[in-house]
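Tokens in:
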């Protein structure tokens, strides 16, 4: 398959890229500052340009999405907008613009996270964004068939506990390899409208 991988230079994107290449897929990598192509997917105009550059693909996988973390009382309207733009609008636009560029039985795989179902202190904006992405996936699935769409929703990575572990007290971490397998399941499988919780 020819796969467009967005957010390809981060921890998750790098691991997904490696696995997809090992599985003999042709992967086009995108990020703001690295990869095969440099685009900012929070800008709808750049997303449209990205697809014009890449052409037709069999799958789009997103491992990108940024949100602010602050106590609820300190979150501003700009913070909420940043969460929406950074994780929701960017991925929704990848799907909407991608419909004409993904093969008829191709797929979209988006990233959400545990905070959609297990909130933490300072994570309200992230919970809002993750919940919105998951709701969008379920709604889009019934409209875009035979194209497919799923989301991967992991908790904190085992490999990132030294940096982020304190923000997820008592939550079971997930090995990065398990998250990567969920991407493979979404891309190579046949399910749609699923949120793979890890």
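Residues out:
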């Amino acid at each position: 398959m020819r796969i467009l991988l967005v957010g390809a230079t981060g921890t998750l994107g790098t691991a997904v890229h490696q696995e997809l290449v090992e599985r003999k897929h042709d992967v086009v990598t995108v990020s703001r500052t690295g990869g095969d192509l440099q685009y900012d997917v929070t800008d709808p105009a750049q997303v449209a340009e990205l697809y014009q550059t890449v052409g037709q693909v069999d799958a789009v996988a997103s491992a990108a999405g940024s949100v602010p973390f602050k106590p609820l009382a300190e979150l501003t309207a700009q913070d909420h907008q940043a969460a929406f733009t950074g994780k929701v609008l960017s991925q929704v636009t990848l799907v909407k613009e991608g419909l004409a560029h993904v093969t008829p039985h191709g797929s979209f795989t988006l990233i959400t996270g545990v905070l959609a179902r297990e909130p933490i202190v300072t994570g309200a904006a992230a919970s809002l964004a993750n919940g919105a992405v998951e709701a969008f996936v379920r709604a889009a699935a019934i409209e875009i068939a035979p194209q497919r769409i799923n989301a991967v929703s992991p908790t904190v990575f085992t490999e990132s506990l030294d940096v982020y572990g304190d923000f997820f007290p008592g939550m079971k971490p997930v090995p990065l390899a398990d998250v990567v397998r969920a991407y493979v399941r979404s891309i190579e499988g046949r399910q749609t409208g699923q949120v793979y919780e890890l």
